[in-house]
Amino acid sequence: MSRRSGILEFAVLGLLRESPMHGYELRKRLNTSLGVFRAFSYGSLYPCLKTLVQQGWLAEEPGRSPDDPRATALSNRRAKIVYRLTADGKERFEELLGQTGPDAWEDEHFGVRFAFFGQTSRDVRMRVLEGRRSRLEERLAKMRASMARTREKLDAYTLELQRHGMESVEREVRWLNELIESEREGRDHRDPPHHGDQRPPDGAPERPRPGPPDDTTT
């Protein structure tokens, strides 16, 4: 299984653990809650769902989604299927939640893993966060070394682009340091630290749970 299909499997199982969903609802959640999947199409999602059904991790049930604008216009089988996580599927998701290898630290995978931290044990969260930080610190060291070697040969715009990339990585490392410190102090994962003294103004909605910076360079 490729890395891309593997993280899609993880995300699908995780979302269906919350509740059964129609394929259209599932794709919408993948797009809105897990932005890394915005480029995914039904052509990618349905083969994944079919494989998960064959593995016994999902079950298909008849039903219609009121959120699907095609529901009254289409009568094909896909418009009628609701996908439900099976007991084996729950076990499979728990197994995936516990994995903390290098794949969990990569840009695309880390964002999806972080989205399910609310269902992840603290020791696993720590290993993933520390692994991600280590990976970014290695990347940052390489970027600094590369800039030191080539800065005299670069024009002002290329140099500024490289600085921007470094600042993005540095910002995520600081964010990870805050989260790791929060985990070590045993704070509730549902109340992660604010950055600095930035607080919502009086009367404004509470700040949503922060996610990983979306402009990290690869």
From TrEMBL:
Coiled coil: 126-160
Record's keyword annotation contains Coiled coil: yes
Biased composition (Basic and acidic residues): 183-209
Transmembrane found in the keyword field: no
Keyword list, A-Z: Coiled coil
InterPro entries (UniProt xref): Metal_resp_DNA-bind_regulator, Tscrpt_reg_PadR_N, WH-like_DNA-bd_sf, WH_DNA-bd_sf
One Pfam family hit: PadR
Positions of the Transcription regulator PadR N-terminal domain: 12-95
SUPFAM superfamilies, A to Z: Winged helix' DNA-binding domain
Region listing for Disordered, in residue ranges: 183-218
Protein name, as recorded: PadR family transcriptional regulator
